[in-house]
Amino acid sequence: MVIPTDHERLEYVHETQVYQVKVISKSAVHPYHGTGSSNGYSIGGLESPYLVLIPGNTYKFDQANSTNSGHPFRFYLEAAKTTAYTTGVTTNGTPGSSGAYTQIVVSATTPQILFYQCSAHGFMGSAAYTLNDAIAANAVTSTQIAANAVGTSELAQNSVTAVQIPDSSITATQMGANSVDSSELVDGSIDTVHIADSQITSAKIANGTIVAADLASDAVTNAKIADNSIDSEHYVDGSIDTAHIADSQITGAKIVNGTITTTDIANTTILVGNMAANSIDSNQYVDGSIDRVHLAADIVDGTKIADNAIGAEHIAANAVGASEIAADAVGASEIAANAVGASEIAASAVGASELNVSGNGSTSQFLRSDGDGTMTWAVPTDTNTDTDTGVTAITVNNATSGSGELVGTALSGSISGRTLTLTLTRTFEQAADCLTYNMQVMLSNNILVNVNNLRVGDNIMTTNGNTIIEELIINHMREGYYVINNELEITNDHPIFVNDTMWKRTEDLLVGDVINNVRIDTMEYISKLTPTVSIITESDNYNVHCDENLYTVHGRYRFIKEQENKIAA
Is 2.170.16.10 the CATH classification of the domain at 430-558? Predict the structure, then answer.
């Protein structure tokens, strides 16, 4: 008889030993788990242990715990409680009550194998082994062997043969892990149903054995194809269309020279940046297609003007100054009647010889008209001084248009003593270089457009509604521009409405100024030649869109020019 291991038994080595008995729910360690009652005994804190009984010792099993109620602890010769064993056994009290116990005195005649069970319920206990000196030959039969008591350790080597094993009695449970190898398998005996899903790896597949017939339709995905493994021989002619080509993957090296024609190029897609320098000559221009908006400032010089091509209608008002007139070129015949006023006469240029007056006069005399066109020298009298003693200032306003740029004039002055000081203020209107090609404005239909794609007549958004573009100067090259808040790119002299109070030139802006509720945090001057666009609109302003920020800039450039003249009375 093999003694159970320590975790399976209670071994009693004292003359008298008392152990507390409790009734608990069976668990998987119970030798009779799943048979009879769902309850089992716990003895000394172990669940249904094997008992090892030593002859000469007394074992007392205390059933006073309330869980023992209705479960009398008794000994039997069989696990199924066929025959009760009472020799040397004493019971006392009612299980679950104070003082209740079952006691056994073990002697040399106590059976080698006993079973402790509940007399009221089936299979709550386990086996008890008595350590007697010897067991009679053939004394242990199947009746004395507890269910599941014989394990591999009780069997002699090679004692179990095929004769002892019924057909079909060995299942997967009886076979050890990794116990079946190729020698136990009949050739061709493993088919699809014996192979678990996802168990065949590449190591189990012989090289070169998978052919097209083994692959399901659409089974080979991109992830299964090695990098750089598909070349031109695998493509069906004409199988690659637009959907298979990733964006920005076709470079110039992939295009056959001379194969891109006009029909391949979308309208308005070729911009200045796409053209090589000096690539457009007179052959590419449509007759009459170049107008003034296409000409850069100061680009037309004398070599571009045909002889006798400039007439009077081509010269702007006030455009011809002294530097443009050859010496002695202007005679009396070139000067219109009444064309020479005070502003055209140089200081000290008019003397007595130029006036219709004789003599030089004398000290304190002044020139006086007689009303018939004759000037004479006269002596001032006090009788005339009181007529202008109340005059201290003079203001003259004139709204007459000048050369097309002159909007208005204002002449103001003051008299101090014998000195009359006059100030002439003129307001001019002219276009300024505006924005780089990176900037955008919004059309009245809420479409954002780069400024270099704008056209005269476009309706663009302003802070107060819409405005029409009257004039554009596109591709005007400028040396340097400012970048505001890392987004607004604008030339140094362009006016911007700031702080809801005033217009400032870009170069006069300060960090902290506010443009249409956007605070200026950074300003950077970029010193490089860049193409710009000048925009002249009906109204005074329009909006530039930079991501989520909106900047209001001026559509017309107005500036003040002041001039002072001092005239001695």
Answer: yes
